[in-house]
Write a structure and sequence with these properties.
Radius of gyration: 19 Å
Shape: globular
Helix content: 40-55%
CATH topology: Rossmann fold
CATH class: Alpha Beta
Structural class: alpha/beta
Distance between the termini: 39 Å
Length: 331
């Protein structure tokens, strides 16, 4: 089966590409840049932008499936970039699939599409989209997910959406580097009482979910047109886990606390300033970030287990061992 992976040069994309190739798929990666490691690993690469509609309509010819992982992430308050890439880009992906009779589309979403700023405790897929989103990223991902799942009802394209939470592990270009960077600069505080739980997803498990979704997405399958939460199924005390990472990399544990209300109001103020001055750079704090750091965010993956056959393979402890080994090799 020929599969095209958008964002295949990114963290989740590259691990998914390796896993799918190992499973026997003929994998092509679509990405904007020129990445030597992809060529070194023997991948076929198409350079292009999902926002370039004309390019995309031609690029999808000859594929059986698209894994749409490319996305703009972040906590910036400027809406346009998120809407252009996550919404319009996904619309282009859908239309390119339809034009070229690609049969299957696996979309990588996020649990933030149902996050309203309060705790999610073992939330399942019945959780609704919030009436008001805390940031443009969440809103754009929700709008894109709706488009993808709605398209399945038309019958010309089989679709499924995955919602992996906080993907981490070796080669991470986002979560771990940001965490370590803030800690090194002394800008990391425990927001709230530090007793909130979180579900995270080791990257190889997230990639496994992408593969399982591909295998399960068949005509008449239960998974068609549905969304699934994906985690390691091992909720952890968020700040305890963060301190384990810091200690494992030779940094001091975080002990300083910042009250949630203070962080939230500080974030709200920074958002107002950024919006007023049209500052695209991410603020150091936002309402969304404060809420994520102080609330419990855990999700049931019973549906993914039962319908996708997704069972996490790498535990949190094993993942930490892999991460520390990787980071030591970099030094």
């Amino acid at each position: 089966m020929k599969v095209l992976i958008t964002g295949g040069s990114g963290f989740l994309g590259r691990v998914t590409a390796r896993l799918m190739r190992k499973a026997g798929y003929d994998v092509t990666i679509l990405c904007r840049g020129d990445y030597r490691f992809l060529a070194d690993e023997g991948f076929t690469v198409i350079r292009g932008d999902i926002c370039d509609r004309t390019f995309l309509l031609n690029a999808f010819n000859g594929y059986d499936e698209v894994q749409h992982i490319a996305s703009l992430t972040g906590i910036s308050t400027i809406k346009n970039p998120f809407y252009k890439i996550n919404v319009e880009g996904t619309r282009n992906v859908i239309d390119a699939c339809l034009k070229n009779r690609v049969r299957k589309l696996v979309y990588t979403s996020s649990p933030s599409v149902v996050f309203d700023g309060t705790s999610d405790e073992m939330a399942d897929e019945s959780a609704p989209y919030p009436e008001i989103f805390l940031n443009p990223y969440s809103e754009s991902k929700a709008e894109a997910e709706k488009m993808v799942l709605d398209e399945n009802t038309n019958g010309d394209l089989l679709t499924v959406s995955l919602r992996p939470h906080l993907i981490w592990g070796p080669e991470d270009t986002n979560l771990i580097p940001r965490l370590l960077g803030r800690a090194l600069k002394g800008r990391l505080f425990i927001v709230g009482n530090g007793k909130n739980y979180a579900d995270l997803t080791y990257v190889e498990n997230a990639a496994l979910a992408q593969l399982k979704a591909s295998e399960s997405l068949q005509e008449g399958s239960l998974v068609c047109g549905k969304a699934y939460f994906i985690t390691n199924d091992e909720p952890v005390l968020l700040w305890e886990f963060i301190n384990r990472i810091l200690e494992g990399t030779g940094l001091e544990k975080i002990k300083r606390h910042l009250p949630f209300k203070s962080a939230y109001m500080f974030g709200a103020g920074l958002e107002s300033v950024c919006s007023l001055l049209k500052i695209s750079k991410e603020p150091v704090m936002t309402r969304f970030l404060a809420s994520q750091l102080a609330t419990t965010n855990t999700y049931s993956i019973a549906k993914a287990k039962n319908e996708l056959g997704y069972i996490p393979k790498v535990s949190m402890d094993e993942g930490l061992d892999h991460l520390f080994t990787y980071l030591k090799q970099l030094n």
